[in-house]
């Protein structure tokens, strides 16, 4: 699940601002992380303007576009400056590159006027450079941002230095403003932009065509880059190759853009290709511009020189720079019906936005994006319905992104959202509640909510078809059966209609008129990860997911066409009825661990609903058609029960069964956090469910864990009937998913691995070489990784990789339900299970301890006889907060470290420092990357996706499969960005069990 959190603004998504009270709490949860503020420092933006002879045609329109862009900036929201290519002639020095024509200063009304006047005073001939040097100019920009020694920027007559009076009146007005880039014309160090320590840095490179870097210039730019890496104590990676066409590949502008992004200055580069040339040097130059943007996490734009188009793109860039960030849940993809192991090109994301005033009603949505392969740079990216980049420079959805199913509207007339604020759903950008499924629900039910297919199940029998059973309708007609909602019939009917979408609480800003649906009709998708089923044929993809507005939803996952994105139905479990009133009342406020309780109007712990994982079972016939599809729906903190639904017909769900802690043999069932994993095992005719018994919140949420009374087991039950088959006891809560293994590839699971909140890894054997009877089902502790002085918890499924000689179990520790704790001592572990045969030995093997593991170094450890395993140590307070994924020889996982000021991450507030790791197999030193904005990154997703693209120089599209990883280190520093994985698998590997039909 993606607890990717960010943001701080009513307009965009996410930060959960609690009252300004001192911390005092007994109970904790992962939403504690949303209790912080984020930076408000103005971003520093340096425009690099190509003033070579190439600007002659575009000059008047470019000046007009720049002036209109500057005029349109909100006062005091940006610091902006201008760099240009150097000019020749006395008294200029002969060093080529770039110089600062106007220093980065606050764009208040006074400086905006001066800046526009300066642009008006430019002359196409008198201000022309003799020949641009892109690589050296990017280096000069870095020197300016960091206050380093200039190379080409001093001893230039038009440079912005203190006391410069040699220019035109409009230029002198700039120079006379405080904040110059240089203290004198020959200054030996730059004066860096003056802003807060949390200010973000940007370059907007406006190109008018290929520049003239020669071999000597490229060598100089490369040498300077080497020195910059050394000064920053960073290892220099290999130079960028693979540009297509590669005519400008030797230019170091993109290597400099990559370095600046990864340096402590964290500079993002946007490139604007004006009047892109399609012959000669043009295609190669455009490939370089695209690479500059991609390598730095920015965006590439191709525009005409009409002026209007340039102004629109510049405005879009500034909007992205100004935007706040969002919060999301994990991505899911549908499995291709034609190729097992590959995914269709659809990416579904559940989203949420906490209420900034701590109210319990959080908004959410489900949106769809897709992959786009760029053959020029050999890269993958996430894009919207318009084919444009979906991920912005801050690692989240771009302000201009348009998700599938989103269309123009006027719904937000009374509550304009976005960057810039707009009444329309398109573009939905970073705004959680705009576009997507939420818009389609609002549009289809704008004036009446009576036609929504909302169901429940109060005392219904197995096999009940909810859509054709009157008593299963969640409507006022059945109000007398829903007394758990409220004992007052009038209030009860109001709540029922409100859940259906009617804006009858008089506390939201809908558009008015005949529109009666409430803006908050779609609640937050917080921990539930979309389960995606490809039914094939005309039905296509259907997405099932839970949300904290009380319901499980089924959505048509088609990208386009009739019914695309339509809500098929929603299901509200009766167990949630007593909590619905609080949603409508939007009170009392939510209490988290940092809330100091007031004397009255006490906040209470948050209510949760359908917030857990969804297990999936599918049967297919010989032609690949669906013959049976079941859902197994867990609740996480929403409750101690699970539901089973038959969705073979996705428009007519059937109730199969439900189990709770009140049922015989299920007394140990805690909050259902663990995915009900479906598997076939010998000795049982029906498939079975193998799942952790859940989470004991009463014990685990305490500052010091209490005695466990539930959740401390692995449960096995019949998937078709829900009948209890076996309880395998553990020490503490098994909140994580169980990983099942088919060790001999006969189609039956014979082994499983589980982990608990005591830091233990368990091996479960379900078969011996001679028997599969339940009497041989056994569990034993494979590893115990807590220590006397250090308690460790596992919350995520262990990643399992089998080889011929051993099985590697990889899992990270970290109490994600205490995200603000700074004293934890966690790690990412690899344990070698040397027993590759079936069954538990007569004497269980000695439990592996942390002291038997070696700390990861740079040397591969492929022989388990040399060690029982290894561990990657994490920083103090750093915790693994998602499930690891191993793909093509590399294991990916993410962490979060709370910000207490000691780690220097003072700009991420309580969202902490988020990191993603890529650890090569086995036990090699990992690559890691700090992610933009902090928060809890989602679990990585990896596989092969089908993409269609047109190769350079061809008019014929090509469809092929590309490997992908969502969540590996990438130029956007985003946990949502798609990337091509490095390398290939070089060790023997076996699939442990193929059964799940969707990306989990």
UniProtKB/TrEMBL annotation:
Compositional bias of kind Polar residues: 951-962
Keywords recorded for this protein, A-Z: Calcium, Fimbrium, Fimbrium biogenesis, Metal-binding, Signal
A GO term from the CC aspect: pilus
Main location: other
VWFA domain ranges (all copies): 44-321
Family to which this protein belongs: Belongs to the PilY1 family.
Location of the protein in the cell: Fimbrium
Region (Disordered): 951-1000
Name of this protein: VWFA domain-containing protein
Signal peptide interval: 1-25
Organism of derivation: Acidovorax carolinensis
Matching SUPFAM superfamilies: Quinoprotein alcohol dehydrogenase-like (SSF50998)
GO MF annotation, one: metal ion binding
Organism domain of life: Bacteria
């Amino acid at each position: 699940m993606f607890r990717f959190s960010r943001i701080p603004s009513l307009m965009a998504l996410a930060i959960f601002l609690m009252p300004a009270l001192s911390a005092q709490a007994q109970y904790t949860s992962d939403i504690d992380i949303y209790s912080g503020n984020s930076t408000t420092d103005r971003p520093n933006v340096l425009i690099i303007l190509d003033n070579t002879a190439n600007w002659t045609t575009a000059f008047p329109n470019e000046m007009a576009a720049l002036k209109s862009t500057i005029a349109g900036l909100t006062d005091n929201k940006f610091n902006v400056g201008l760099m240009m290519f150097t000019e020749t002639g006395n008294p200029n020095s002969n060093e080529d590159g770039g110089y600062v024509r106007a220093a980065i200063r606050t764009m208040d009304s006074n400086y905006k006027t001066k800046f526009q006047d300066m642009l008006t005073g430019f002359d196409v001939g008198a201000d022309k450079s003799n020949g641009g040097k892109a690589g050296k100019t990017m280096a000069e920009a870095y020197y300016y941002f960091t206050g380093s020694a200039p190379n080409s920027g001093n001893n230039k007559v038009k440079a912005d230095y203190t006391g410069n009076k040699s220019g035109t009146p409009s230029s002198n007005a700039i120079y006379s403003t405080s904040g110059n880039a240089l203290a004198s014309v020959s200054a030996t160090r730059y004066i860096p932009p003056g802003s807060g320590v949390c200010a973000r840095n940007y370059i907007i490179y406006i190109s008018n065509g290929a520049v003239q870097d020669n071999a000597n210039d490229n060598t100089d730019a490369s040498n300077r880059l080497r020195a910059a890496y050394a000064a920053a104590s960073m290892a220099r990676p290999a130079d960028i190759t693979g540009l297509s066409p590669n005519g400008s590949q030797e230019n170091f502008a993109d290597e400099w853009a990559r370095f600046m992004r990864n340096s402590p200055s964290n500079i993002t580069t946007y490139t604007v290709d004006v009047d892109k040339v399609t012959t000669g040097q043009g295609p190669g130059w455009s490939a370089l511009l695209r690479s500059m943007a991609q390598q730095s996490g920015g965006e590439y734009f191709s525009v005409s020189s009409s002026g209007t188009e340039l102004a629109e793109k510049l405005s879009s860039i500034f909007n992205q720079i100004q935007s706040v960030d969002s919060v999301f849940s994990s991505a899911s993809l549908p499995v291709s019906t034609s190729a097992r192991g590959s995914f269709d090109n659809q990416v579904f994301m559940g989203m949420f936005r906490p209420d900034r005033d701590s109210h319990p009603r959080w908004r959410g949505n489900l949106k769809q994006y897709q992959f786009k392969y760029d053959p020029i740079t050999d890269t993958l990216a996430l894009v919207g319905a318009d084919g444009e980049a979906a991920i912005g420079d801050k690692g989240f959805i771009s302000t201009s992104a348009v998700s599938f199913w989103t269309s123009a509207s006027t719904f937000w007339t009374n509550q304009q959202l976005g960057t810039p604020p707009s009444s329309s759903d398109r573009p939905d950008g970073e705004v959680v509640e705009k576009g997507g499924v939420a818009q389609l629900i609002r549009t289809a039910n704008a004036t009446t909510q009576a036609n929504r297919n909302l169901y429940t199940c109060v005392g219904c029998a197995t096999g009940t078809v909810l859509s054709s059973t009157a008593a299963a309708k969640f409507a006022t007609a059945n109000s007398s059966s829903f007394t758990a909602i409220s004992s007052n019939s009038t209030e009860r009917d109001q709540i029922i209609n409100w859940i259906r979408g009617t804006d009858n609480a008089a506390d939201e800003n809908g558009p008015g008129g005949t529109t009666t649906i409430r803006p908050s009709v779609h609640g937050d998708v917080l921990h539930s990860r979309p389960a995606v089923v490809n039914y094939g044929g005309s039905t296509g993809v259907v997405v099932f997911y839970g949300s904290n507005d009380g319901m499980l939803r089924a959505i048509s996952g088609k990208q386009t066409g009739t019914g695309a994105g339509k809500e098929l139905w929603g299901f509200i479990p009766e167990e949630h009825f007593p909590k619905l009133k609080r949603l409508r009342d939007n009170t009392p406020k939510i209490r988290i661990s940092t809330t100091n309780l007031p004397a009255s109007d006490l906040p209470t712990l948050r209510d949760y609903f359908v917030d857990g994982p969804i297990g999936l079972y599918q049967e297919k016939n010989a032609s690949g058609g669906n013959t049976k599809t079941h859902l197994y729906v867990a609740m996480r903190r929403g409750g101690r029960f699970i539901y089973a639904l038959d969705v073979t017909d996705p428009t007519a769900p059937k109730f199969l069964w439900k189990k709770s802690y009140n049922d015989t043999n299920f007394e140990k069932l805690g909050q259902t956090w663990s995915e009900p994993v479906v598997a076939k095992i010998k000795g049982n005719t029906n498939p079975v469910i193998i799942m952790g018994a859940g989470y004991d919140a009463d014990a685990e949420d305490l500052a010091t864990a209490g005695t466990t009374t539930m959740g401390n087991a692995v449960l096995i039950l019949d998937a078709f009937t829900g009948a209890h088959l076996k309880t395998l006891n553990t020490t503490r809560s098994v909140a994580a998913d169980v990983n099942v293994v088919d060790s001999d590839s006969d189609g039956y699971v014979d082994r499983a691995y589980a982990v608990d909140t005591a830091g233990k890894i368990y091996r479960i054997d379900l078969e011996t070489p001679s028997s599969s009877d339940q009497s041989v089902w056994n569990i034993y502790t494979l590893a115990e990784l807590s220590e006397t002085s250090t308690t460790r918890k596992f919350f995520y499924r262990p990643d399992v990789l089998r080889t011929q000689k051993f099985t590697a179990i990889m899992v990270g520790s970290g109490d994600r339900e205490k995200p603000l704790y700074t004293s934890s001592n966690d790690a990412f572990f690899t344990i070698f299970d040397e027993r590759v045969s079936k069954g538990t030995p007569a004497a269980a093997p000695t439990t592996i301890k942390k002291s038997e593991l070696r700390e990861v170094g740079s040397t591969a450890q492929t022989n388990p006889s040399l060690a029982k395993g290894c561990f990657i140590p994490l920083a103090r307070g750093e915790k693994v907060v998602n499930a690891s994924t191993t793909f093509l020889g590399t294991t990916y996982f993410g962490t979060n470290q709370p910000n207490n000021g000691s780690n220097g991450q003072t700009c991420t507030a309580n969202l902490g420092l988020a990191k993603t790791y890529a650890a090569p197999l086995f036990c090699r030193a990992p690559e890691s990357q700090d992610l933009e904005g902090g928060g809890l990154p989602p679990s990585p997703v990896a596989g092969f996706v089908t993409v269609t693209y047109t190769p350079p120089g061809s008019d014929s599209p090509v469809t092929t499969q590309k490997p992908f990883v969502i969540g590996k280190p990438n130029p956007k520093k985003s946990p949502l960005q798609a990337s091509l994985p490095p390398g290939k698998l070089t060790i023997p590997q076996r699939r442990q069990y193929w059964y799940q039909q969707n990306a989990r």
